[in-house]
Each structure stands twice: as structure tokens, then as C-alpha cells.
Amino acid sequence: MTATPEHSSWGTPGTLRASDTLPPSECWALASTRSTGRLGFFRDGLLDIYPVHYVVLDERIYFRTSADGTIATSDLGRAAFQIDQVNRETHSGWSILANGSATRVEEPALLTTLWGKAIEEPWAPGQRDLFFCLAPTQLRGLRVSTAH
């Protein structure tokens, strides 16, 4: 996993805002406090983004889907996963973006561990018994708050 790179849109808040780049350790700690994120990937030349429930384990993001659904039948070799927390009252929050490939989990011991984790039921209907793992090659995080 590479360190957080500087990007023109990261770290450039408005005049009344302040932002701080988050180190990977804080990104993982914050990601562990949420349960819903967004998976982005390309399909048929378009960018698709799906909300999914997830769990963080050993600096990887795991989520469930159906074996015959759009996610499982798409090329997830270049995927992104975004997790946020926003406080509308204080105009503050944080956002984490993990980039990497998402692969099907097939290791029996890992599947046993994942099924034992408290993961919210997927919102989408149907059976969602296929786990995928996104192991980030790049992880970026940003915290935004009111400037002092």
C-alpha cells in the first residue's frame, strides 16, 4: 500500500474550512467505525457505484454480494471503495478512499471468520453469500472542519 499522495483536490479547503490528510493508521481506525461504504468499478465503459455493507479485517475491506449480481460478474481489477462520515451541523467530517482490486474470498478459514463477524444484512434483496476482499494498493484520507 502506498502512502497518501498529494492530489490537487485533496487538502485545498474553502476559506472557512480546514483540512488534514489522514495517515493510513487513522484511515483504518475510522473505516472500522462505519458499516456502509460505496464500491466503484467500471462496467461496460461506465463507472458504477454501489452502496455495500462491509467489515474491516487486517487492513482489508470485505463485503458480501450475490454470485450472479452486477458486482460479482464485473471486472473488479480496478476498484475503489469510499467511506465517509459527515456532520451537517458542524460542517465537518472525513472521507477515506481505498483503491485496489477486489477479489472473491475462497479460503475456508477466512470465510468462517467473516461469517462470524457482525456484518449488517445487505439492503439489496436476494441471497448475498459471496464475499469479496478489497486489498488497497492506495489509501487516502481527509478530515475537513471549520477553520479556527
Look at the helices and sheets and give the structural class.
mainly beta
Roughly how many Å apart are the termini? 33 Å
Percentage of residues in helical conformation: 10-25%
In the predicted model, the low-confidence regions spanning at least 5 consecutive residues are none
Strand content: over 45%
The number of domains: 1
CATH architectural grouping: Roll
Biggest sheet: strand arrangement: 2-3-4-7-6-5
The CATH H-level homologous superfamily: Electron Transport, Fmn-binding Protein, Chain A
Tell me about the biggest sheet? 6 strands, antiparallel, barrel
**SS field, number of helical segments:** 2
CATH class: Mainly Beta
Mean pLDDT: 86
- CATH domain fold name: Pnp Oxidase, Chain A
Radius of gyration, Cα only, in angstroms?
16 Å
Q: Would you list the SSEs in sequence order as H and E? A: EHEEEEEHE
Number of strands: 7
